[in-house]
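Chapter summary example.
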Amino acid sequence: MKNKIRFALVGTSGIAHGHIKHIKSNPHAELVYVYSRNLNRAKEFAKKYNLIPTDVYADILNDNTIHAIDIVTEPNRHSELAINAIKHNKHVLIEKPLDTNLNNAKILVDLVNNSKSICEIISQKRFDSTILHMKRDIENNKIGKLKSAKINMTLKRTHEYYNNGNGWRNTEGNVLINQGIHWIDIIQWFFGEPLKVKSTLKQINNNINCYDTASVNFTFSNNFTLNLECTTASNNIQSENFMIIGDKGILDYKKYPKLPLLLTKALRLFRIFKSPMKKQIDGFIDSIANKRSPKITLNDGYNALKIVKSCENNNQTHLEKS
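The structure predicted for these 322 residues follows.
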């Protein structure tokens, strides 16, 4: 690649550090700006990562040497920031979820579908080697006709996590839109659009203002069903599993062979091993360089968000406090 793709990072959330590391480690990309509404916060990041700080978004939009915007702000600003970037002919990478407002997300998706900008939503589980292996096994009919599946996600997220930054997770977030949306994207990627979704939403921890536990049942064609159980109310357990049952066998995420931890660390040290997030960001950069469609489109992000919102809003959903 003759010229590097020049990036601006928009937002200084906790996940921003990972995005910065992956962009800067790509030989075909250059990270130039960091934007925050809090200039001091932008300056902190700029000093640490040798970037140009700004609290004026127009500085980035009007800089014709900037090719791509990486948005890592709180989700309720994602669509607005992305729309302005696309109107200035920038490519856009957006941390999940696409937005917290479905209407705003739809406006963004429609704009992208009629533009020349390459836009991608982060959903790094699609780049997990075990997930990819499971998908290939399904496509190769390894377990025969699909009967049912289940996903269990048990995580610990503290009161501090929900109130960190400006506290958006406590007011607009929840276990589905923060964490479960990754699995919802995988569900639709594997099995397509469900015919029906039923959900029960609960708040286990009383020191937060949103639900932290969800049970979601998906019904697909041919009577195939999937149950998603997810919580961030665990005290100790940190676990995720994905099991698919067919009439000829079972695929179990936990039973696929994995590299030993020490070998993984060694491969990372020598930049041989790539994390799923690193793979996705490298792929986005490659998409821009080669003018091809991204692997995960904003339509994918919108479809996952639509499921989350149906769980929040439909009359089969119950918000319960323990």
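To summarize the output: The mean pLDDT is 91.
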